[in-house]
Amino acid sequence: RRQTTVRVNGKRMVVMTTAAGKTTVKPALPEEWELQAAQMKRLHAMPEYGTRFLTAGDQNSAKRGRKASMQAKAAGLAPGEPDVRIWLEGGRVGLIENKVGKAALEPSQAVRHPLLAALGHPVEVVRAVTCEEAADKAEALVRGWLATSAVADNDNQPSTKITPLLDANARGASYGDSGAVCGSGAARHKM
């Protein structure tokens, strides 16, 4: 059996050919970055965003040339770091690692995630096959973390609310208006 991912009319499709020569075509699963983009868009739309939590995401798995890889490593990019960090009120951090379907953790993730958990920062692995599913699971995690955050005893209590620091552009433009389309394999940019 042979499987290839190709573009058909701008959409990623999987073409499978059996040993007997039968060919089938079906939509490809989203890429991991598309799951993350859908999560960010959903989380930034939550009314609690900016007052009870903030987000940060990165692309540790991004393809880089030799020079860019060296620069990223020198600047502190840590192999195996979770995809999404949720900065919660009360000095807590929620960590999310995204995986498409049954994809396994990378070896660097299998090392890094237990180290983070040992420091009190467990990593939640979100497995999804659609962007909607990934966004639903991320929102459920954040709502659960917020429900338990009744600002526990912590020396890192904020002295002021952060909402005034976030203007309308910072709240939505970075993710909500990116034009990324799940399953497209590429972002469309609005002009």
Any overview of this molecule?
The structure is a single chain. The protein has 191 residues and is of the alpha+beta class. Helices cover 30% and strands 23% of the residues. The protein contains 5 helices and 7 strands, in the order βββαβαββαβαα. The protein has a 4-stranded mixed β-sheet with strand order 4-5-6-7. The protein has a 3-stranded antiparallel β-sheet with strand order 1-2-3, with no helix packed on it. Strand 1 and strand 2 form a beta hairpin. Helix 1 packs across helix 4. The protein is globular and about 60 Å long.
Q: What key attributes describe this structure?
A:
191 residues, alpha+beta, 4-stranded mixed β-sheet, 3-stranded antiparallel β-sheet, 7 strands, disordered C terminus
Secondary structure elements and their pairing?
Layout (H helix, E strand, L loop, with lengths): L1 E7 L2 E7 L5 E5 L4 H14 L7 E5 L8 H9 L9 E5 L3 E9 L6 H12 L4 E6 L2 H17 L20 H6 L18
Parallel strand pairs: 6-7
Antiparallel strand pairs: 1-2, 2-3, 4-5, 5-6
User: Largest sheet, order of strands side by side?
Assistant: 4-5-6-7
**Gyration radius, rounded:** 19 Å
Which blocks of ≥5 consecutive residues have pLDDT under 50? 158-165, 167-179, 186-191
From the N-terminal CA to the C-terminal CA, the straight-line distance is: 43 Å
- Please bin the fraction of helical residues: 25-40%
The arrangement of helices and strands along the chain is EEEHEHEEHEHH
In short:
The protein is an alpha+beta fold and 191 residues long.
